[in-house]
Amino acid sequence: MTSTSSLISTLPGRSYTDPEVFAREQALIFESLWFCAVRSAELAAPGAFRTVQAGRESVIVVRGRDGLLRAFLNVCRHRGARLCLEEGGEVRRTIRCAYHAWSYDLDGTLAAAPNLARMPDVDRVAYGLVPVALREWLGYAWICLAGEPPPFEESVTRAATERLGDPAAIERYHADELAVGRRVRYDVRANWKLIVENFMECYHCATIHPELTAVLPEFAGGYAAQYYVGHGAAFAERAEGFTVDGAAGFGKLPGVAPEQDRRYYAVTVKPQVFVNLVPDHVIVHRMFPLAADRTIVECDWLYHPDVVASGADLSRSVELFHRVNEQDFDACERTQLGMSSRAYADGGVLVPSEHHISAFHDWVNQRLRG
Predict the structure, then answer these.
(1) Average pLDDT over every residue of 134-140
(2) Rounded alpha-carbon distances, angstroms, from residue 260 to 227, 233, 341
(3) Is this structure's pTM higher than 0.85?
(4) What DSSP assignment string belongs to 60-126?
(5) 216 vs 164, which has greater pLDDT?
(6) Sheet containing 263-269: which strands, arranged edge to edge?
(7) pLDDT tens by residue, 285-344
(8) Helix segments in the chain, DSSP class H
(9) In the chain, at which end, N or C, are there fewer CB atoms within 10 A of the end residue's CB?
(10) Residue 194: what pLDDT?
């Protein structure tokens, strides 16, 4: 994106604080688009489930006896009680409501209910759990609450492949075959859009990310890798790996191409996923917006299964981006404090290395217009 002005406007402050704006975002963004929910491999056995907050809805993702993952609204069809209160677990045979004991098979069909035999007209499929669309990609289950979900390939996979320039680039990391080496959950007291904006720019990198710029020196210049399509930021000559002290990490993932070696790539998949690609691991952020000023971020560090199984020390590898996360989220929380100020009523400004963020703002505004 080009502009004739050095400074262009941002969204107004109320966009980050107004509960009504956030409610519209829940309905028109998070309940209408594909939403990255859970790591598929974590639901390995039949009956394994996890509940996920997507927009204003609680969703159950569960492994069926046929081995398939399915998603359903976490609501009993009888009187509306929430079925699963836990974040995750395993049910033996059915998903059972604790209120009146209506029970549902793992495929969502109504399996049993008190006195159900006396109600032969009850259609067990029609009164089964409400299904939610589900697709799997990069080793995650993605769900969509829309009655007619947008094409997955266009709205999700193409977003990543277009960003990287090469349609096959992201597949070379085989993220679906990697294992979770570490997961950190961050409770960020900031609007989800501030987190997206922060991830999209590196104007702040020289200020708050000394460890990152030591490994990726070009970031100190203010331009993030996301600014250039297909661009991967090169490691510093002294850096042996993508670690907090530049020490060697682990062996390059088998599918990574030579031109991807010693490079860092970043991808935003709107509305709530960041993918970070380095030669020996993949880092995936998933945002779960809960309020106008609160966002849960789950960050997974994914490694070759042999690395995780060996019990290798992941600490230096994890610590680099963990520090980046903490530095970023502290900055987002500082920014959130200013969003309700009269000084920010009309918004702020973007400098040239941030101008591409205005495309994100345009996208948000377009979604909210319905």
Answers:
(1) 98
(2) 17, 10, 44
(3) yes
(4) EEEE-TTS-EEEEESB-TTT--BS--SSEEE-SS-EE-TTT--EE-TTS-EEE-TTGGG-TT--TTT
(5) 216
(6) 179-188, 294-303, 281-291, 273-278, 263-269, 233-234
(7) 999 999 999 999 999 999 999 999 999 999 999 999 999 999 999 999 999 999 999 999
(8) 19-25, 152, 158-164, 192-200, 205-208, 210-215, 305-309, 315-338, 357-368
(9) C
(10) 98
Asked if the model's pLDDT at residue 1 lies above 50, the reply is no
CATH value at residue 32: 2.102.10.10
Does the pLDDT at position 121 exceed 50? yes
- 197 and 59 housed in the same domain: no
CA-wise closest residue to 163 among 253, 256, 227 = 227
Closest CA to 228 of 259, 277, 267: 267
Q: Which CATH number covers residue 181?
A: 3.90.380.10
What is the tens place of the pLDDT at every residue in 198-208? 999 999 999 99
- Are 163 and 268 within 8 A, CB to CB? yes
Let me know whether 181 and 138 are in one domain: no
Cβ neighbours around 310 below 10 Å, total: 11
Query: Could you tell me if 39 and 140 are in contact, meaning their C-beta atoms sit under 8 angstroms apart?
Result: yes
Q: Give CA–CA dist 366/370, Å, rounded.
A: 7
158, 179, 208 — which closes off a domain?
158
Give the lowest-confidence range in 227-231, 246-250, 271-275, 287-291.
Answer: 227-231
Which of 158, 193, 218 is the last residue in one of the domains? 158
Q: Is the predicted pLDDT of residue 270 greater than 90, yes or no?
A: yes
The two tokens of residue 67 are 């081995």
Q: At 33, which helix (H) or strand (E)?
A: none
Cβ density class 155-181: b for 16+ within 10 Å, e for less = ebbebbbebbeeeebbebbbbeebbeb
Share of the chain above pLDDT 90, in %: 88
Residue where the block lists tokens 């191409």:
257
The helix/strand/coil state of 40 is helix
* Domain shared by 177 and 311, yes or no: yes
Structural domain boundaries enclosing 354? 1-14+165-370
Q: Which amino acid is at 259?
A: E
Q: Which two tokens stand for residue 363?
A: 């996208």
